[in-house]
Structures are given as C-alpha cells and as structure tokens.
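for the writeup, i need someone to sanity check this before i put it in the appendix. the sequnce is what the collaborator sent (i think, or maybe the updated version? ugh). structure was predicted straight from it, no edits. if anything looks off just tell me and ill rerun, i have time this weekend
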Amino acid sequence: MSDVLNSNYLLVYSFVALMGMAMGSFLNSWVWRAHENIRIVSGRSICHSCRRRLAWYENIPVFSYIILRGRCRVCNGKIPAHFFWVELITALLFIFNAWYHLAYVKDIISVCFFAHTLLVVFLIVIFLCDGLYGLIPLDVSLAAIVFGLALNLLGRSASLSSMLWGALAAGGFFMLQFLLSRGRWIGGGDIILGALMGVWLGWPQVLAALLFAYVAGSVVGIILMKLKKKKFKDSVAFGTYLTAATLLVSYWGDELLKWYMGLVR
C-alpha cells in the first residue's frame, strides 16, 4: 500500500485535488442557483449579497475564500462558509477515492473508479440540498439510480438481483414509514433516496448503511439536544446521514456488515 503514497503519484493526486475543488465549486453554484431559480448557464458566479459578477480571481476554489476572509471584496457581505468546506471536502474525497482505487482495486482508469467518483458527486448534491434546504432533489436521485444501474452492471460490481433487492428493501422500508406516518416522519424524497442506496450498494450491504445512518442520527441528535441546539420535536435532515452512510459503506460495506453480524450472533 505504501507504493501508492510515494512521490510518483504526487501528480495524480494533485490533478485529482484540483478536479475536486473545481467540482465542489460547481456543485455549490449549482445547488444555490437551483434553489434561487437562477439558470446554471446564465453567466459567471455572482456575489450572494450584492449579486455582482465575480472576477476570475474571486472565484478560485478554496483559496479565494481564504484570501477574501469569507467576505465579498466590494459589498463586504459574508460568503457562506459551506462554500469553502464543500470545495475542500470534495477535493479530499476525490483524493481519497483515487488512493482507495490505487491501493485496493489497483486500477484508477476503470468503470469502477468513474462510478465511485460519480457517486461521490451525487451524494454531495443530495447532502447539500437536504442539509441547507430540507429537500432531497428528485431529479438528482432518479439520475443517480439510472447511472447506478448502468455503471454497476458495466463494472460488474453488483448483480442486477442484488441491486433490485437492495432498492426494494431500502425504498420499501421508507415507503412503509411514509404510509404509517402519513408523511409526518419522512418525505417522499427519502423513499427515492432509499432506492438509490439499494442500487449502488446492493443487498445486503444496504442494511449496513441504514443501520449506520440511524445510529449516527440518534447519537448526533442526542448530543444536539444535550447542548440545547435542538428540541425533540425538531425536524432532522435525515438525508445527510443517509448519504454519509452510503458513501462509507460503498468503500467498506463488507467489513461493516461482517462486524455487525458478529455483534448480533
């Protein structure tokens, strides 16, 4: 594994990091413009406060935020902090994904690597939309399902029956909650997200993702209530936990599943 950390791969990781920062910047803009009903092709990035078009040197991922100290150069309005974090974390996820495929799959130019990168992008969009606006975008989730079916079959990382059973299990689980609560517990977007999880992770790995999401959501919820940041009846952007769990299990699904099965025996 040490051979994928040496200087020979420095150029690869540097390129991947730049692509990650650029993708993070694009996703930030895409999600915000979609929420504000601004066309993504309507021109260069603009300031969120004064709506002024930004110069190229104000729109360098990660670095512009640091240099400008999180504020617009002209109106001094605050630049949302999540813009910086999304760009940085996307870059780190891209680097990790490259390292993982070099270390374990031994191939970075493959359908599997492309599929994993695309999954990261889809999950970041869903995480952002649910975390910021409390909405899981139906069109993004459906697109992710279609790409997941196609790429997993091409890459032979999961059988069709495994994907369908996974989608039925997770989607059906959320559908049942939706019907029992008449939409009070979860929204329709969670049902489609459940199907997305099943398609990308397959059966039974999707079970590990659901377990991890519920455990993480419960622990974080208890901590926030103890800190008086949330009340028991407050709504939770559960899609953020589901996307994080999906990403985690996409790398270590078998190991997590074996660990869980060892606990219940």
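The radius of gyration is 20 Å. The longest helix spans residues 238-264.
thx in advance!!
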